[in-house]
Amino acid sequence: MKNEGSSSANPAERQRWREIFAGVGISPSKARGQNFLHDRKIVERIVDAAGVTTNDVVLEIGPGLGVMTRELARRARKVVAIEIDHALAEHLRATLPCSVELIEGDALQVDFSEAVGTDYIVVANLPYSVATAIIRRLQESDPPPRALTVMVQREVAERMCARPPDMSLLAVGVQFHGSAKVLFRVGGGAFVPPPRVESAVVQITAHPPPLPREEWASFFRIVAAGFARRRKQLLHVLSVELRLPRDTVARALATAGVTSQSRAETLGVADWLRVYAALCEAQELT
What we know:
By secondary structure, this protein is α/β, with parallel strands linked by helices. It has twelve helices and ten strands. It folds into two domains: 204 residues, Rossmann fold (3-Layer(aba) Sandwich); 73 residues, rRNA adenine dimethylase, C-terminal domain (Helicase, Ruva Protein, domain 3).
């Protein structure tokens, strides 16, 4: 897959950005994953891929200097942007179109339904340090966004979209709530300062979760147990992590159509749902 936006800024361009940051009063923070997307072609490609229309309410998390925010505002019915950095929030208030609603706060704390309502999409260059936590919170919100088109670290994007035999707890979590695909990769030259990792745009389209909300915690407790000791066979790891008799786990795996020698990364969401149902039934019978 070809990298987009891979060219590096020249010395004059880097100096221009230093002056912009000084004017705003910030120094990009690694802890907050502040790598600002500035390549307008990449911005347009992301917004195009999200299919933003004048009917859409769009939530952007981590607007940074507002490059993508302005493009979203040009196309969407409404844009709500959440920015945690006070200096950036002040800059955005002074420079963004008045049609953009800016919330200064932590996306891991903001009530999304209160901020954007019940029908919205997410388009964002997510802060990489908290990207997976934000995606999980969005998917578990009530109601969740219809779709997310977000930039994350390439490795994270690929893990979210993985298929057996390369699954992870992250992949099961994302795919429990929606279908995910990597759209394209983005090189470091599209950002300032350029990150040391590759980036990718991933799109997650929501679908109704296969279990009621009150069962999510129990389901993911079993999935997390399966991934607790990677490369270990499920019969062993589930019996140890869940503190269940081996014969109980063996019967449940057989009922689910999963061999005792299977490993967690070889199971997709449908497989885990069968294991969960079989273990629930087995524990009720014991």
